[in-house]
Design goal:
Elements: H1 2-12, E1 16-25, E2 31-42, E3 46-48, H2 54-60, H3 63-84, E4 90-94, H4 97-101, H5 105-116, E5 123-127, H6 130-133, H7 136-149, E6 152-158, H8 164-170, E7 175-178, H9 180-184, H10 190-205, E8 209-212, H11 218-226, E9 231-232, E10 241-242, H12 243-252
Parallel strand pairs: 2-4, 4-5, 5-6, 6-7, 7-8, 8-9
Antiparallel strand pairs: 1-2, 1-9, 1-10, 2-3
The structure holds guanosine-5'-monophosphate (2 copies), manganese (II) ion and sodium ion.
């Protein structure tokens, strides 16, 4: 309850910050984009993880203004970085199923793109299966509107939910992010490798770009490269970084 009141205030006091985790092309090892991850610099508690406040934000509806702030800040940063270099850098932003339920998500995204001058093609929205499992028709309409804007859609934490296969076919998703629980077990058991290979094939056969998340060592990286996964994220490549450090690795490489 105390955190809820604090979170309301945090939004008006610039206490939220974004960290940026690089996404790496497994063939070139170059950075092709970042995933924006929100943190809360609480005046008393210090840095608070999204695990401790996204749930509160969802339950109270604060996720709507918070989500808009995150999207605006991430787009603003991507435009600033994009202007500096040659590459059209991608920016991925996590959206909650609650943002589909409260208010018009695609209209909000269109407004933020216009306000920040962010090209829609450079924005990726990450969502979990919960978006596909609840309020199906309304959410499907929203997803098609987002696609019509030119935004890329990613299925996050793939493999951890239900009905994955049927929903993947029905929804206009571009990117499949293989949950880190699968990546975690790579390197030992051949069965785990077979599982990841199957997910990669599934993604590819549906025309999706595959991303492996949660890579924590060189063995996992090697296996994923051999399996021809397209993109990778994980602490072994880089932790989520404050904006200034992310800008530095963008200039100097990892
Ligand atoms: O960055 P970290 O690993 O601590 O994130 C924990 C969880 O919080 C992850 O599931 C991540 O997707 C989620 N998260 C981080 N930033 C955001 C955000 O801006 N919006 C939403 N909805 N979830 C986020
Ligand atoms: O749910 P989502 O995939 O958006 O969650 C992203 C979260 O995963 C972030 O909080 C980020 O800090 C975390 N993360 C990123 N790379 C790794 C990793 O290599 N290992 C672990 N344990 N967590 C990671
Ligand atoms: Mn994510
Ligand atoms: Na994930």
């Amino acid at each position: 309850l105390e955190l809820e009141a604090d979170l309301r205030v945090a939004l008006t006091r610039d206490e939220l910050v974004l960290h940026y985790q690089p996404t790496v092309d497994l063939r070139t090892s170059g950075i092709v984009g970042f995933e924006a991850l929100v943190r809360w610099q609480h005046p008393v508690r210090g840095m608070v993880s999204p695990l401790d406040f996204i749930g509160i934000a969802e339950a109270t509806g604060l996720i709507v203004p918070l989500g808009r702030w995150v999207l605006t800040e991430a787009c603003r940063q991507a435009v600033a970085w994009g202007a500096a270099g040659e590459r059209p850098l991608k920016m991925a932003v996590n959206v909650s199923v609650r943002q589909f339920e409260h208010g018009d998500l695609s209209a909000m995204v269109a407004e933020v793109l216009a306000e920040t001058g962010m090209p829609a093609e450079r924005l990726c929205l990450e969502m979990t299966e919960s978006v596909l499992l609840t309020d199906t028709d309304e959410n499907l309409t929203q997803l098609h509107r987002l696609k019509a804007l030119g935004v890329t859609l990613a299925m996050d934490d793939f493999g951890t939910g239900y009905s994955s296969l049927a929903y993947l076919r029905r929804y206009p998703m571009d990117i499949l992010k293989i949950d880190r629980s699968f990546v975690d077990r790579l390197g030992g058991d051949r069965e785990d490798e077979a599982l990841v290979r199957t997910i990669v094939r599934l993604g590819r056969s549906l025309g999706m770009t595959t991303v492996a998340e949660g890579i924590e060592d060189a063995v996992q990286l090697g296996v994923l490269r051999d399996l021809q996964v397209d993109l990778a994220q994980g602490f072994y490549l880089s932790r989520p970084l404050p904006a200034a450090e992310a800008g530095r690795v963008l200039d100097e490489g990892l």
